[in-house]
Amino acid sequence: MDKALSGVRILDFSHLLQGPFATQLLADMGADVIKIERAGPGDLFRSMTFFAKWVGGSESPNFLAWNRNKRSIALNLKSRAVHAIIMRMAKDADVVVQNFRPGVMARLGYGYEDFRAANPRIIYCSGSGYGEEGPYLERPGQDMLIQGLVGLATNTGRGDGPPVPAGSGMADQIGAMNMVYGILSALYYREKTGKGQKIEVNLLAGMLAHLGQEYCAVLNLGEDFVRPNSGIGHPGMQAPFGIYETSDHRYVSIAMSPFKTLYETLEAPGLAVYDDLSTLFAKRDEVWAHVNAETRKFAMEDLLERLLAADIWCAPVQDIRQASEDPQVTHMGMIQSYEHPKAGTVRVVGPAVRMSETPPAIDRPAPMVGEHGREILAEFGYSAEEIDALETSGDMTIERV
């Protein structure tokens, strides 16, 4: 069955998280993503891992998470012979994606103007930390740095502790979504006009956009966020919005719910003295402490059953392993797997979007370095002898099992 993006070919020079996640999302939808890696070591994410451990003894979970459904070719981008090959590939490509520091690709001869000269319809998407000009141009643009810069870390954690970054690469992943948003918009525009274009995405702008309500509040209400010392879940929110402990030392999150309904459900009428919006904000740490004392009278499952029966917005607080086994996650089939030639069975999070006519799917494992180099070059008309010569020269490498 054709997928929504079948027939779209992407030359993917990106590495680490932002670009690879974007191209994986497009690959899940059927795009032919040709991952162009460095000859030899390949994508830098192949050498990074969590827990100082490797899947199957050798493979990075970080790389395996963001590179399924792609084919890999590993080339020496500084080689003029390779430059000629890539420009030949560009003539039959729709999209180029890269997230090197600004200027790197252009210096190697792979900037937007280089690709546009080879193919005027090309869509060229660049990802960076801070954009392609301005006072931060030379700074490293990394996820945690951006979280601190824009105020997300300062908004997170308890007031009596330091700022806390999110436990995931939020800036990179939002940047990936913005890449996809831009690429799909550009493909639609090209369908109408025949014109390609350059797209610029950066982590700083992406995080600013996704903190839109926080910026709107601060810039228009004359207030600055101050983190509460309790488990209130947002520095701008009143109680009871937050996370609460249960008798079995687990936790539940309670979101926007009528406070009267909550204290009646908890059988805690003494909390009625706080039932006023201004009071719930001004004394939110105090309210949180009283509500937490009440939730600690119940085991988590009993508390959830009671709160849900009263239509109070709540959920268990789980770790990743618990969430992967959650009945709703299981029902949605979100934890999937693929077979990798070196890592074996790799369990991953599947596509998050469902489509009735062109459902996304995992069809390929994350590739080994340059695994598909020979087949890709053959598709572009190179002979076996020419491919052999390129590999012998060291301008192309292929990792074999």
TrEMBL record:
- What are the boundaries of the signal sequence? none
Has the keyword Transferase been applied to this entry?
yes
Q: Which superkingdom, per the lineage? A: Bacteria
Alphabetized UniProt keyword annotations: Transferase
Keyword match ATP-binding: no
- InterPro entries, per the entry: CoA-transferase_III_domain (IPR050483), CoA-Trfase_fam_III (IPR003673), CoA-Trfase_III_dom3_sf (IPR044855), CoA-Trfase_III_dom_1_sf (IPR023606)
SUPFAM superfamilies associated with the record: CoA-transferase family III (CaiB/BaiF) (SSF89796)
Q: Which PANTHER family match?
A: SUCCINATE--HYDROXYMETHYLGLUTARATE COA-TRANSFERASE
Name this protein carries in UniProt: Crotonobetainyl-CoA:carnitine CoA-transferase CaiB-like acyl-CoA transferase
Q: What is the lineage of its organism?
A: Bacteria, Pseudomonadati, Pseudomonadota, Alphaproteobacteria, Hyphomicrobiales
